[in-house]
Amino acid sequence: TSPVHTYLLAIIIKIFGNSVWSLRCLGPIFTLITIGAIFDTVRQFSATRARWMACFLITFPPVVVLSRLCGEVFVFNPFLFFGTIWVYVRICRSRKQYIRRIGFLLAGFLLSLGVWNHIIFLPSALSLVMCYTLFLWPGIRQFLDNGFFCSLGFLIGLLPRFISAWVFGSVFFQKRPAIPPSSLTSALLNYL
Fold first, then answer.
1. Closest CA to 126 of 84, 79, 73
2. pTM of the full structure
3. Which of 2, 58, 131, 162 gets the most CB atoms within 10 Å of its CB?
């Protein structure tokens, strides 16, 4: 997992002290930022629906409960997912080519932070790329240009990971796992 959550948590604990509330405050903060991104994205298409959606998400019990309980790296996944969509809607659809390129660079960076944050984000990142490819096809030339800048942003986001692995001599792809995988029966029994 990425150190971003740990660094932010260290800053919060330094400011507010060592308490349970310090551990839990990142959840509501990033949930509210995510709701703001969702609101602004929907507002681009329908202002009335955006107001209702924001009110619903702010008061929807699972969103409220999960945002306050989650004290791990998963708190960033909705923020990075909807943040990427917000970047696409607000920046990547610009008529100016240099702003559009910066938007795709930033979108790729947010996707790489999501994958680096936790590998469980990878299907979300792939689904965003597939939805863009299938439903918003810009043509082959524009797709290659956008894909190049999105990939460049993705690599920039993973650059600290590669540098630290190279400096500390880590192996990118191990021949054998450090912990052997459990058997199918024990995995099924863990679900019970």
1. 84
2. 0.75
3. 2
In the chain, helix, strand, coil percent, each to 5? 80, 0, 20
The DSSP call for residue 192 is -
CA distance 175 to 152: 28
Reported as type and span, the H/E element at residue 83 is: helix 76-87
Distance between CA atoms of residues 154 and 104, nearest Å = 10
How many CA atoms does the CB half-sphere of 161 hold within 13 Å? 18
State the residue for tokens 């995510």: 34
Query: Hey, what are 134's tokens?
Result: 């299938």
Q: ∠176-182-188 over CA atoms, to 5°?
A: 150
> Residue 190 is encoded by which pair of tokens?
């863990």
Eight-state DSSP code of residue 144: H
Please give the distance of CA 174 from its chain centroid, rounded to a whole number. Answer: 26
CA terminus-to-terminus distance, the chain: 27
Residue 73 has pLDDT above 60, yes or no: no
Q: What is the pLDDT of residues 157-187, one digit of tens each?
A: 888 878 877 887 776 666 776 677 667 777 6
